[in-house]
Amino acid sequence: MKSEQKASSNEGESPRAGRIALSDSTSKSSNFRDIIIVLIVAWVARLAFMLIVPPGARSFDAFSWETTAKYLEMGVNPYQATPLLNWPTLWMQLIFCLSKVAAFLGVPFFRVLQIFLILVESGVIILLFKLIQEVAPTQNIRRIIIIGIALNPIAILLVCQHCNFDIIVALWLLLFMNTLLRYNRANSLGDWLSACLFLGLGILTKTVPLILFPMLAGGFRQATASLGFWGLCWCLDRLPLA
After folding, report:
1. Predicted TM-score of the model (pTM)
2. Shortest CA distance to 168 belongs to which of 126, 109, 120?
3. Contact at 8 Å (CB) between 101 and 94?
């Protein structure tokens, strides 16, 4: 009799569990489709801009990055030889790597730079989609990101013409926000240490993210002395000194 009741109970629960699993699967499929749509819209808009606007129509910064690459090829320190770099050294190292990729592929440095920044921006779109989904799941995320980034003329100009590397800072900060949100929900110090790391990488790229350091205060209160020390090191050991 008990086995029959247990079987009946399991039969009653299985359709509900199946509906929940089906709903989760449908939601993930819809989210994946929305991300792909947003990325395609962003890529098409930027490709159209690159085809329409002449390569010579670019910002002073974009010319500066190419000049920096040439100095690096000659073995000259651009921080000493030119006034073009006023930021931490990560961007100079990326310029060096991009110039090597351009030489290997036999394509202009400017095009490689544009493609690199577009790929970084694609990562920003994916992480932003995830963040909005966590904090405001009822919103039309696809429309928000299409209007806010994919078809935003300012975003297109910054990546394709100005070649602004702040998009790299945005990538680190979105990783920081996602892991910090995970820490606040699961109370895992591993996530907090990851947030310290990503904020430190943002500071390494450009010192502006230092202003977000107080957001880590909760983890410092919870962490042991050793974990707090490592969190501080991961966050601030990349702080450039004059």
Report:
1. 0.84
2. 120
3. no
Q: What is the DSSP letter of 130?
A: H
In Å, how far are 92, 96, 106, 112 from 103, measured between CA atoms?
17, 11, 5, 10
Give the integer Cα–Cα distance in Å for 35 and 31.
6
CA dihedral sign of residues 211, 216, 217, 220: negative
pLDDT confidence of residue 16? 54
Cα 159–chain centre separation: 14
Check: CB of residue 179 under 8 Å from CB of residue 195. Answer: yes
The CA distance from 53 to 161, in Å, is 9
Give 217's contacts (C-beta < 8 A, 6+ positions apart).
none
Short-list 113, 192, 225, CA closest to 158: 113
Averages of pLDDT over each 10 residues, the chain, 242 residues: 48 50 62 93 96 88 91 89 83 93 94 96 96 90 95 95 92 96 90 93 90 91 88 76 45
